[in-house]
Design a protein that fits this description.
Radius of gyration of chain A: 17 Å
Structural class of chain B: mainly alpha
Number of strands of chain A: 6
Strand content of chain B: under 5%
Distance between the termini of chain B: 135 Å
Oligomer: heterodimer
Number of domains of chain A: 1
Order of helices and strands of chain B: HHEEHEHHHHHHHEHH
Strand order of the largest sheet of chain B: 1-2
Shape of chain B: elongated
CATH topology of one domain in chain B: Fumarate Reductase Cytochrome B subunit
Largest sheet of chain A: 2 strands, antiparallel
Radius of gyration of chain B: 34 Å
Helix content of chain A: 25-40%
Structural class of chain A: alpha+beta
């Protein structure tokens, strides 16, 4: 089985936000929830870079560790998913997440923040693959159809890569050696305790 | 001739200047390569501990790109907190069991007189039980967030445990208002009798007679002895800490709170919370099995006159005086 990861090549990202839009449309994500976002660093200054960020599907995921009801699980492809039936909306996963990935449908915590929502690597949830229930709670299960996450698939500059760790790391390494520079695999050190040597 | 030399000198000077300028221009062109000279992740993390940028969506806190401190909070919540909570609560229970085996319940030495003295009126008892009931529910539902996954989830099963935890969370959030009201009323109602006085020094020197197994040490005290005053002030301070940090957690990211602030609020809430629970277990012990004749004070409000004379001698004197002034006798127990 593959070890699925995201890699955003910040030297290619043009902050078009198409990944954000594609994700929202593909999974019919409610208003106010952003499973993916583009963050611009050093905005307007020399060395400005944009990074598209969503759940990184960490190794030994912090969200899963702190969840009081243990609603997270990791698939055979190392994708971190959760059950909205078990989630109590406490918000602790957001405090533990280094990437700000968990999203909540309600702004306040008073009473409830609602069921947590986050990037599924287009791999759905615990329900049977491709069912209506799965789509309504988690969005499309593209992985079950043999497709990769839509955000990366339709990235116009191919900045955002999604797929098996070794494959995307190899692509990134080749790019860096050809063009002679690379700002690195953003978030990898924090999420996987390893980076890509270039 | 001299003119020519001067001209040549001028030309040489101009050439030298142009050369220097050219070198410096090419050097600075080499330094700034807008394509390759990017911000580096490790550099930002080393300098700032977080990577913060700008986003174009309304959720401004999502501009936090990488926040590795979440890993430290995770370590606290999953490991450190469990140790602090486990040691303080199980430790308190162990100390009380050992204390009970050694000391036994503190008896009323001269026996019951059969005469009742009103210790706490209806309002005092209502405020006490409002605070007490909400505290116990807040304590149990709060401990569930930290220990439930380890202690309850394995035998309840995921669905039942989630359903219980969701209701526990609702109770925790809503009952916080009752607890806040109870503590506020308690503060106003009892602060006057909880200010330190000279009598308290003597009480503390004798340890309140708590460590005398013969029951013959009885330090004088007014309505509240020094131990109760210390308890009162710890409760007021801890409750304030719990209420402030709790309201921060209930209204997350309100008015510019960052994820770092939220993590700190949770750490504060959890540590003070488990210590508070351990303290109140001690308070419950002394109010029930630990001391004979004490529970009535919070049940129907009455204590026996002899209990009052032994444990709160100066208060008993006040009460007897007051009864004489009114001209009535102290009421016998029914």
């Amino acid at each position: 089985m593959a070890r699925m990861k995201f890699l955003c090549d910040a030297d290619r990202c043009i902050e078009c936000n198409a990944c954000v839009t594609a994700c929202k449309n593909e999974h019919e994500v409610p208003w106010g929830i952003n499973r993916r976002r583009v963050v611009t660093l050093n905005d307007g200054k020399p060395g400005e870079r944009s990074v598209s960020m969503a759940c990184m599907h960490c190794t030994d995921a912090p969200c899963a560790a702190v969840c009081p009801v243990n609603c997270f699980y990791t698939t055979a492809d190392a994708v971190v998913l959760h059950s909205k039936d078990l989630c109590i909306g406490c918000g602790y996963c957001f405090y533990a997440c280094p990437f700000g990935a968990p999203q909540y449908p309600k702004v306040g915590n008073f009473g409830s923040r609602g069921k947590m929502d986050k990037c599924t690597f287009c791999a759905g949830g615990p329900e049977a693959d491709g069912t209506k229930e799965e789509f309504e709670k988690y969005g499309n299960n593209r992985l079950a159809e043999g497709k990769l996450p839509l955000c990366a698939e339709m990235c116009s500059t191919k900045a955002l890569l999604a797929g098996d760790s070794e494959v995307i790391a190899q692509i990134y390494k080749e790019r860096v050696s050809r063009r002679g520079y690379g700002s690195g695999a953003w978030g990898w050190q924090t999420a996987y305790r390893e980076s890509i040597a270039t | 001739m001299a003119k020519l030399v001067a001209q040549m000198r001028l030309i040489a000077g101009a050439l030298a200047l142009a050369f220097i300028v050219a070198i410096s221009v090419s050097a600075s062109a080499q330094q700034i390569n807008p394509t390759a000279d990017a911000v580096k992740e490790q550099q930002l993390l080393d300098q700032l501990k977080v990577i913060q940028g700008r986003v174009t969506i309304p959720d401004e806190k999502s501009g936090m790109l990488v926040h590795p401190a979440g890993r430290e909070w995770r370590q606290f919540h999953t490991v450190t907190l469990k140790w602090i909570g486990g040691i303080s609560i199980i430790g308190m229970l162990a100390v009380l069991v050992l204390f009970y085996l050694w000391r036994g319940p503190m008896r009323v030495k001269s026996g019951y007189s059969g005469i009742n003295v009103l210790r706490f009126d209806g309002l005092e008892r209502f405020v006490h039980w409002l605070t007490a009931v909400t505290f116990v529910i807040l304590g149990v539902t709060g401990l569930n967030i930290t220990f439930g996954r380890v202690l309850l989830l394995p035998w309840m099963g995921p669905e039942a445990f989630s359903a219980w935890s969701e209701w526990a969370k609702y109770s925790h959030n809503f009952l916080s208002f009752g607890f806040t009201l109870g503590v506020a009323l308690m503060f106003v109602m009892w602060i006057g009798r909880n200010l330190p006085t000279a009598v308290d020094v003597e009480w503390l020197k004798q340890g309140g007679g708590m460590f005398d197994p013969t029951n013959s040490t009885h330090a004088p005290a007014y309505k509240f002895n020094a131990g109760q005053k210390i308890l009162f002030w710890i409760i007021i301070v801890s409750s304030s800490a719990m209420i402030i940090s709790g309201f921060m957690l209930m209204f997350p990211f309100y008015s510019g709170l960052t994820v770092g602030n939220m993590e700190l609020a949770e750490i504060f809430h959890a540590v003070v919370g488990v210590l508070f629970v351990a303290l109140i277990i001690g308070h419950i012990y002394l109010g029930t099995v630990g001391m004979e004749g004490a529970f009535g004070a919070m049940a129907d409000g009455n204590v026996d006159l002899n209990w009052a004379k032994e444990h709160h001698s100066l208060w008993a004197k006040e009460e007897i005086q007051a009864a004489k002034v009114k001209g009535g006798a102290m009421r016998p127990a029914e």
